[in-house]
Amino acid sequence: MNKNQFLVSFQEQVIVAQCTPQGAGAIALLRLSGNDVFNVVDKAARLASGKRLIDQNSHSIHFGSVINQRGQSIDQVLFLVMKGPRTFTGQDTVEITCHNNQFIVEEIMNTMIICGARIAGKGEFTQRAVTLGKLDLIQAEAIHDLIHAQTAASLKYSLQQLEGSLSSWVFEIENSVLEMIAFCEGSFEFLDEEMEFGADILKKMEQLLNKINKLLATFSKQQYIKEGIKIVLMGSVNVGKSSLFNCLLEKNRAIVTPVAGTTRDTIEAGVYKEGEFLTFIDTAGIRETEDEIERAGIDRSFQEASVADIILLVVDRSQKISIDIVAAYEKIMQNYSDKIILVYNKMEEEILFEEIKFDERSIFVSAKNNQNIDLLYQEIFKKIKQLKGSDAITCLLNKRQYDLLFKFYRDLEEVLPMLTIRRIDYELVSYRLKESLSLMAELTGKTISQAAFDKIFDTFCVGK
Ligand SMILES: Nc1nc2c(ncn2[C@@H]2O[C@H](COP(=O)(O)OP(=O)(O)OP(=O)(O)O)[C@@H](O)[C@H]2O)c(=O)[nH]1
Ligand SMILES: [Mg+2]
To answer: Disulfide-capable partner of 166 in 268, 377, 395, 415 (CB 3.0 to 4.6 Å)?
Structure first.
């Protein structure tokens, strides 16, 4: 058997995996796919109708049992019989719905292995769907993103991408490049001044670069859609960060005490609000300390500030603080001026301290009395709007897609000056354009190395 034959047969082998999460529950779903799947499952299937599973029509459901090698019933199940290519992988497929007890699931899996199946690798069902042309690589990645979407917006985009939004965007781009290549070939075939398409190609190229650039430019904002917004509460000890954190979450998540230095480590909690996923992070209060653990906590506060999207810098003006702490506040305000919202907590208290000046809008709240928390939220949403900017996002890109698209953009950009000279070398332009198309083929998975392909599917879960 040569390598190709081995790969083909590997692709055709019957694979089995549990598609639903492990653990007790009402039902579990096992999926099997491969060329010989009906024969494999038939060996262990006993249909209530008394008929054989291999004789059943495609896309039909049958009640029955899975029986083990000793002829004992493992569980009462439903068999869903689907003949390829109208299946997820494109191959013949059987899905078994059984009761979700891990002993049952494992015994059915073992029985299927004895009957000729093997355990599926990570993302192997989707990998087969791509290989058999049921999905392109972008759609396969969208399935992964759909399962792991953390925000309503990223769920929406992943679904659109699974339905082909980014794939058809790439298809349009490819078509534009092909048109340019056709113009080039027309120009050097005829070698006639009248038939020169230089100006048309240039115009097309500029439009194309503009279109790609627009999508690339939204990439930095896409993390807000994918991961939500990270909001860190920072400030000196005892100013009421944890109290405010609890108010914002509307639950008593963090410990609050009058003791300065109560919070030692960062605490994270998320909420959905107005369609956004917000992760709040409470941190250890900043102060001079000899305590090693507390100092490590304070270091963490600063690390969180550097990666935060928004910092709620909390001040308590009823408390006197040292010059060093004032300096620390000023440094934070300088370093992160555009992501800070200054929050004056304990607004109902008498003001004893007015050292910290801030010229941007600040909010006065009382975490103790739950006062003005709605105003603070308004300010947070204003900031989020600023962060996201006004650019409409057409598609969500992952890092792999972004990198390929960026390389493609660069390649085209290099061709641009070749189109503005008097005697255009159409043959060279055409060659460069054809070369650049290989990046688009890699994007959709039409041509991609096995290693790159495996790397993508390595992030998938078994059963998908
Ligand atoms: N009067 C008043 N007291 C408050 C307010 N918010 C918090 N406190 C009190 O301030 C003290 C410290 O509150 P925490 O929320 O633990 O403050 P912190 O900033 O998290 O403190 P560390 O974790 O030590 O850095 C507690 O006694 C709270 O009850 C407020 O709005 N008004
Ligand atoms: Mg605290």
So the answer is: 395
CB atoms within 10 A of CB 349: 13
Q: pLDDT digits over 421-464, tens only?
A: 888 888 999 999 999 999 999 999 888 788 877 888 887 877 78
Measured in Å, residue 228 CA sits from the centre of ligand 2 at 23
- Average confidence (pLDDT) over 90-113: 96
Ligand nearest to the CA of 367: 1
> What pLDDT is recorded for position 172?
93
**What share of the chain has pLDDT > 90, as a percent?**
58
Atom 5 of ligand 1: nearest residue by CA position: 368
What are the pocket residues of ligand 1 if the criterion is a CB atom closer than 6 Å to any ligand atom? 237-243, 256-258, 260-263, 285, 345-346, 349, 366-368
Task: Note whether 100 and 20 are within 8 A (CB).
Answer: yes
Chain Cα centroid distance, residue 376: 29
For residue 365, which atom of ligand 1 is closest to its CA? 31
Q: Which atom of ligand 1 is nearest to the CA of 255?
A: 16
Q: Which amino acid is at 207?
A: Q
Mutate to test the pocket of ligand 1, among 233, 243, 312 (most ligand atoms within 8 A of CB): 243
Domains and CATH numbers, the chain: 3-136 (3.30.1360.120), 140-218+396-444 (1.20.120.430), 225-388 (3.40.50.300)
Report the separation in Å between the CA atom of 262 and the middle of ligand 1, taken as the mean of its atom positions: 10
Ligand in closest contact with the CA of 368: 1
Entry pTM: 0.72
Instruction: Give the strand pairing for 73-82 and 60-67.
Output: antiparallel
Instruction: Please tell me the number of Cα atoms within 13 Å of 208 on its side-chain side.
Output: 28
